[in-house]
Amino acid sequence: RQLTPYIENVFFLINGKRKFGASVSKFCKKHKVVSSISDGLDYLIKLGVQTKEKSFIIATSDLIAVAIDNNKGSLSRYYYLCTTKQAGLLTKAYDKDFQYQLAKRVGIRVPESRLFFHHSSTAGVSYPCLIKPAYKEEGVHHPFKTKICNDENDLRDTQHQLDKNGTYVIQQYINKDCDLLVYGCRYDNGDVCYAGVFIKSRWSGGDGS
Description:
This protein is an alpha/beta fold. Helices cover 25% and strands 24% of the residues. The chain contains 6 helices and 10 strands, in the order ββαβααβααβββαβββ. The strands form 4 sheets. A 4-stranded antiparallel sheet has the order 5-8-6-7, with helices on both faces. A two-stranded parallel ribbon has the order 1-2. Strands 3-4 form a two-stranded parallel sheet. β9 (179-186) and β10 (192-200) form a beta hairpin. The longest helix is centred in the first third of the chain and has 14 residues, at 37-50. It is globular.
């Protein structure tokens, strides 16, 4: 809706579901449905070879953004990408366990955290704790964004819901008054600019999201 008054050639590449989201919008004039992200990447490369001018790719999910970032070398020849300078860095940025390890290494106080799986032992876990997917994974169904477990029974019940192929993070839960989201960017010369902050003090549902 925002782009169509200024750009005539808007094309939707849809992963999996035709009648979903933007694909049913009146602004969706042209689209292509693929069955997987890898099929979508192959299609983009073939389309890029046939197109004279570069187009912009706008990713609409973390999973797709990571796939584009990991294939930056082959896609950047044909498209303008909103991604990192080095392929693979976005994967690390979205990995919650990597974020924890990095924050701890530079001296930031963070809740105790470790990787957790469907088959992991619950020994040594302190309560309450928080479980969330470590990162987005194609083909893996995550039943929730975050889940608070107050005791071992809660944790075991939640563990049975986890996808057997999924990677999760279990973390010390610290009650909060608000969430603080900081907006910023780093320029080519290394300077960091903080554009502003967003404070969220109300949450929907019971998972703190």
